[in-house]
Amino acid sequence: MNRKFKPQALLKNQLSLENNIVVISGGGGFLGLYFAEAVAEFGAIPLLLDINKIGIDKNLNALQKNNYTAFGFECDITDSANIDLIVSKIIEKYKKVDVLINATNFVGINPSDFEDDTNQYFASFENYSEDLWEQSIKLNLTGTFLLTQKIGRFMVKKESGSIINIASDVGVISPDHRIYKPDPQNNYQGMNFNTPLSYSVSKAGIIHMTRYLATYWAEKGIRVNAISPAGVNNNHSEEFTKKLTNLIPLGRMAFPQELKGPIVFLASDASSFITGSNLIVDGGRTIW
Fold this sequence. Notes:
Elements: H1 11-14, E1 21-25, H2 30-41, E2 45-50, H3 53-65, E3 71-74, H4 80-94, E4 99-102, H5 111-114, H6 130-158, E5 161-166, H7 197-216, E6 222-229, H8 238-245, H9 260-267, E7 278-281
Parallel strand pairs: 1-2, 1-4, 2-3, 4-5, 5-6, 6-7
C-alpha cells in the first residue's frame, strides 16, 4: 500500500493523464470512441481492443484526425489465449498499463438492431435462448473478468492503476418494460427491442465485481470503480426517446460527451481516494 501518496495541489494537475497508457475494451464501439477521446484530451495514449477490426479502424481514424496518438488491437476478450497474446504485446511495447476501461457490450445494441423483428437478442424472457444468455454473460461478465485479471497482474507488480468498469443503470434498477410496449391511448406503437435479462444481470455482476476487486486490490494501490450510464442518445426514434425521457428527472437522454468527465475523473488522480464506487450517470432516473 502506497501510504506516501500525496496528490498534486492543483486540480488541473490531478486531472492530467500525461503519458498514461489506457486500455479500452469495446474500443471499436460507439462509446469506445468517446472514452478514447476523453483520455487522449488529457494526455493519455488510448489502446483500443475489440473483436471488430472495422470499428477499431474507424475510431482510430477519428482520433488521428484530431491529432491524438492511439493504437488498436484486434482481440477477443472471451478467449484467454488471445488476451494473453495481446496483453504481452502491450506490456512489451509500453511496459505498463495505467488505466483499464472495460466497455464491452454483447451485441453492441444500436439503432440498426432495433428495426430487426427477427433479432433474437430481443426475444421475450419466456422465449429467450440459452445460447444467447450464455453468450451475453460470457462477453459482458466473463470477458471483463479475464481481461481485468490479466492486466491486473501487471498493475499489481507496479502497485498502481485505475480500473473503470462500464455497467448500466439497469444493473442497479429494473428496466421499465412499459417503454417498449404499445400504448394505443397515446398513439405509441411500441418498439422491436427491449432490455434482455442477460444484459441487466451481467451489468449487475459488473457492479459487484467492481466492489470485490476494489477491496481485494486496495492494498496494492489499484482503484476499481464503475460507471452506470442511463440511455445515451444515439439517433433513437422520437417516440422511444419521449417514452424514456419521461422516466428521467432531467428530461432527456445523455449525450455521449457527458460520459467523458466521469471517465477522466475516475482514471486520474482527481479521484485518488475513491474506490469501489458506482458512479451513476443517469439524469436522476434511479432516484425516482
